[in-house]
Design goal:
With 275 residues, the protein is mainly alpha-helical. It is built from eleven helices and seven strands.
């Protein structure tokens, strides 16, 4: 399919008009004499090896999952294919089961729509926030009952909202598969059960095994999230070896690169896992 890179709209900033009359000459000062501001505020140098969050870190631009989902619809405008099953879907999110041989396992209603799946589950990184585990004084419902978890941390933490909205971590998934995946970790499972018709995905024992053609994409998403949000427990030592093997077996393809380029144009930061 033809690819159209999303366009970003730049705001025009109007310049200030000059005052009437000729400008007054500026008072001269010896070039060697710094002014007071220069004496108090020495020029700050960027430390070697460090880079700004906007160019090498995580998402600093998009805050809110709803906004992220709208952005992803733009990214996939000309490549409407579900991630785990390879099904075609319409602009309104309706899925064409016949395009991929999908057969609903149990929830045909949810299987009819596309949902935006967190490849690295929000539950996996959300628990690194104390508000998820313990709650917060602001997290009290109208009946005075305290709550915690995703609802609480989303309410009080801008850092979590940006992490939850990171476009690099989002993929279109059939709603039923998204629900069955839950917050389960990636793995390789014995056997090749087909609970969703021809869709090559296995979900059992609180683990998910994706089709081989997207395993590298998943690995590089984990690598990005781990680097962009250090200290959030994204990848353990055992899982890293699995992802390194997946990244090698499934190298970067043309669509993965175009997707990353489109996200960078919207979100403003790059994904070093896809150079």
């Amino acid at each position: 399919m033809a690819w159209h890179r999303p366009l970003l709209t730049a705001a025009l900033i109007a310049g200030c008009s000059s005052p009437s009359g000729p400008p007054k000459p500026a008072k001269s000062r010896p070039a060697s004499t710094p002014n007071k501001a220069e004496q108090k505020q020495p020029r700050r140098q960027q430390q070697p090896g460090k880079s700004s969050a906007a160019s090498h870190g995580g998402n600093e631009k998009i805050e809110g999952f709803a906004r992220a989902k709208r952005a992803m619809a733009t990214v996939f405008r000309d490549q409407r294919t579900s991630f785990y099953c390879g099904c075609s879907f319409e602009a309104d999110g309706r899925i064409d089961w016949a395009s991929c041989g999908y057969i609903p396992r149990a929830n045909s209603k949810r299987a009819r729509r596309i949902e935006w799946e967190h490849v690295v589950p929000a539950h996996a990184f959300g628990q690194s926030f104390p508000e998820w585990r313990q709650g917060h004084p602001s997290c009290v419902n109208t009946k005075g009952k305290a709550y915690k978890g995703r609802r609480c941390v989303r309410k009080v933490s801008a850092a979590f909202r940006r992490m939850e909205a990171d476009l690099y971590n989002l993929q279109p998934a059939i709603g039923e598969v998204n629900a069955d995946r839950s917050n389960y970790s990636m793995a390789e499972l014995e056997g090749e059960e087909r609970e969703y018709g021809a869709c090559d995905v296995e979900i059992r024992e609180r683990k998910i095994e994706p089709r081989p053609s997207v395993r590298g994409d998943i690995a590089r998403t984990y690598f990005y999230m781990d680097k962009a949000y250090p200290g959030r427990g994204i990848i353990g030592a055992k899982r890293r070896k699995l992802f390194e093997a997946w990244a090698k077996a499934d190298p970067i393809d043309a669509w993965e690169r175009k997707r990353v380029q489109a996200i960078q144009a919207i979100q403003g930061n790059r994904n070093p896992a896809v150079p």
